[in-house]
């Protein structure tokens, strides 16, 4: 996407492994970057504006939203697989309401509310993108291993929410592409507990994943809107 002005991207969840690498990637590509995070972001640059938010509920982002200039694109990295309270469920016995609710909240509910809130900041008639990082394990068709109930189901819900929004917004924002991108297994705190049995060549650095995600974004067309895309740009089945 090219414009006369310096392109401006908003990265949400910018203190995370992939989020921080995306901030650095876009700054290196001469984009203006706004970074939202609940935590301080340890990157400084003339083209970077960091905004610390309390959380990502509509009421918690209202000040950040009011400060935000129009953007060409938004990338939300929000996602939770495990935290201090839970690990992904290995079997049905482990499924519980708290984990399901917490996973749906971060992986599906907050992302669609963010899209709702941020839509006025995205151009109606110019090319623009709204990308949420998703996961291949959220593909229902591709689920051969089972397990990880909450994560899988909440990412599948995310994919449906984005697909539904893409149908509606395809009418009002004809050049806006809404996409879910699977970053591949990346060396961050999210994947840390599951890295042991992974071949080293299947674990990617955050910088590598960020540059692949940005390459997929650079090639997005309106035909891609509503799709779940692999980091290599191919379409994954829902
Ligand atoms: N790493 C992988 O192997 C892998 C594989 C497939 C898909 N993904 C997806 O890629 C995305 C980025 O993952 P990552 O590896 O960079 O993970 P990460 O380092 O844990 O970052 C996740 C981000 O989500 C936000 N977040 C986490 N819990 C939250 C909560 N309770 N409330 C609000 N925000 C919360 C955080 O934003 P703050 O900056 O505000 O803290 C954080 O920056 C996720 O959507 C993940 O599902 C990752």
From TrEMBL:
Gene Ontology CC terms, in alphabetical order: cytoplasm
Q: Which residues form the signal peptide?
A: none
Which InterPro entries does this UniProt record tie to the protein? Fungal_SecMetab_SDRs (IPR051468), NAD(P)-bd_dom_sf (IPR036291), SDR_fam (IPR002347)
State the Gene3D superfamilies in the record.
NAD(P)-binding Rossmann-like Domain
A GO molecular function term, named singly, is: oxidoreductase activity
The protein's name is: SDR family NAD(P)-dependent oxidoreductase
């Amino acid at each position: 996407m090219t414009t006369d002005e310096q392109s401006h991207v908003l990265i949400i969840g910018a203190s995370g492994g992939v989020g921080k690498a995306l901030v650095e990637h876009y700054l290196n590509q001469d984009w203006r970057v706004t970074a939202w995070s609940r935590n301080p972001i340890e990157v400084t640059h003339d083209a970077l504006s960091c905004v610390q938010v309390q959380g990502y509920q509509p009421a918690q982002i209202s000040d950040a939203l009011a400060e935000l200039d129009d953007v060409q694109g938004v990338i939300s990295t929000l996602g939770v697989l495990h935290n201090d309270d839970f690990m992904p469920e290995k079997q049905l016995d482990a499924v519980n309401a708290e984990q399901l609710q917490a996973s749906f909240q971060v992986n599906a509910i907050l992302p669609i509310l963010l899209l709702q809130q941020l839509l006025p900041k995205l151009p109606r008639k110019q090319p623009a993108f709204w990308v949420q990082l998703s996961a291949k394990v959220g593909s229902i068709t591709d689920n051969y291993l089972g397990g990880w109930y909450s994560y899988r189901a909440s990412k599948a819900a995310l994919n449906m929410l984005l697909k539904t929004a893409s149908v509606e917004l395809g009418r009002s924002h004809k050049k806006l592409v809404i996409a879910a991108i699977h970053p591949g297994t990346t060396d961050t705190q999210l994947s840390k507990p599951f890295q042991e049995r992974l071949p080293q060549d299947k674990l990617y650095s955050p910088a590598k994943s960020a540059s692949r995600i940005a390459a997929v974004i650079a090639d997005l067309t309106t035909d891609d809107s509503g799709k779940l895309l692999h980091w290599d740009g191919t379409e994954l089945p829902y």
